[in-house]
Amino acid sequence: MSAAMDTESTYSGYSHYSGHSKKAHRQGRDRHKSPRSKDGSRSEKSVTIQTPPAEPLLGNDASRAEEGQDDNWGETTTAITGTSEHSISQEDIARISKDLEDSVGLDCKRYLGLTVAAVLGLLVFLTPIAFILLPQILWRDDLEPCGTVCEGLFISVAFKLLILLIGTWALFFRQPKADLPRVFVFRALLLVLIFLFVFSYWLFYGVRILDSKDTNYQGIVQYAVSLVDALLFIHYLAIVLLELRQLQPMFTVKVVRSTDGESRYYSLGHLSIQRAALVVLENYYRDFTVYNPALLTASKSRAAKHMAGLKVYNVDGPGNNASGQSRAMIAAAARRRDSSHNELYYEEADHERRVKKRRARLVVAVEEAFTHIKRLQAEEQQKAPGEMMDPREAAQAIFPSMARALQKYLRTTRQQQYHSMESILQHLSFCITNNMTPKAFLERYLNPGPTLQYDRDRWFSKQWTLVSEEAVTSGLQDGIVFVLKCLDFSLVVNVKKIPFIKLSEEFIDPKSHKFVLRLQSETSV
């Protein structure tokens, strides 16, 4: 604690503090300075990491102190932040070096695959041209004259090569979305098929044309045309295997996040396990709400509070071991279990009350700020063009009026680590530029959004590890379970095959809908 209070910083974007808050600030500073002189040797050995300039709106420690604060704490309290203290062991250094080696290996594998594919594609496009030009270069005088049909084949080869080039660019030359642990089987098979195909054509061309110096030039050109036609058919096969085969849904996967149990269902076609994992991760960043570990600390703190309230007395003397104490604590916790649900109920009710109260304050503050913006815009229209404020300046002008309400709400809902001061100002200027309403501005903060909504440095999931009992290149099957792990949590994926649906038809005779209305001639009227 003493080493962590070396530097003190306050947010200057909020309202002025009262004299009482300044006095509390000086007392707190003196109180935290006093233990530093007693433990000066410890602070010299610690490794301090300076806080980044684009820090969140609130520190992570604020969420832990939130439970014991009233609604008016911000009026008489000064927020103090400091540096963090971390230590790095030899195991951490070894793990970091291993991750660097793995990343270098993945880069080499990816660039090697791209190089092989590029060389093979260049060979494919140059082969028909070489088949046509080599006889003209080596035995031009012995060739038979090329007639009208032969010259028409030149146009056919040119246009087919152009179509093949465009199709290859659209299908294969894409920016990779991820680094998969294994090769894509169908893509590798297509590369091997193309290599064997071109090699066999070259072998036949060398034996039957180059060695014998065939003089039938029209037949040579026709041979090159047949090669281009075959390459076009292979391209059609690639479209079927790589794109069309996986379009029909065949499996339903359930994705569950291990920490909070949030789940989603997706339909997939015939895919390998690694490509299914890639599809799951793409949908995860879009559909799942952002992972917030601060929301999971409530149950842990509640359990720690229950255990802290238990006292164990050793009445048998010092000879009793610790196992007896642990059994006594477990028995006492079991006796208190009946009353724990009441505490949970009142804690959740109090938390919901504070969230609704601070949400109402935030909505009112933002509406007043946007009303002030409209008034400023009306005043700016009467000024000269050179004196008008840009959206960034307008956002900086109205932000202090809503900053305290937004600060309290983000602390209560434990979202402060995802929103920095700069990101809020950028979002506010964006809403002002596009003439958006206060409700549109608050949508990002009132409801936690997907992971893609936030900056990459706020993500808790950037690198994933695929864990599967089956080979990751094998296809999906009914009952397969694989896990996608990251640093703080994991995604458990359970695969179920879509059942076979049998529909039967039942014929209804149109005459069965006819009926006869019989009226009695004698009535009471």
Automatic annotation (TrEMBL):
Organism of origin is Tachuris rubrigastra
* Family label: Belongs to the Vang family.
Q: Which UniProt keywords apply?
A: Cell membrane, Membrane, Transmembrane, Transmembrane helix
The regions listed as transmembrane in this protein's record are: 111-133, 153-172, 184-204, 224-244
**What is the recorded name of this protein?**
VANG1 protein
Q: Which GO terms describe its cellular component?
A: plasma membrane
**Keyword Phosphoprotein, does the record have it?**
no
Q: Does the keyword Transmembrane apply?
A: yes
**Pfam families, per the entry:** Strabismus
- Where is the stretch described as Disordered? 1-86
Indicate, by first and last residue, each region the UniProt record lists as having compositional bias (Polar residues): 74-86
Comp. bias (Basic residues) = 19-35
Q: Where, per UniProt, does this protein localize? A: Cell membrane
Q: Where is the composition biased (Basic and acidic residues)?
A: 36-45
Indicate how the chain sits in the lipid bilayer: Multi-pass membrane protein
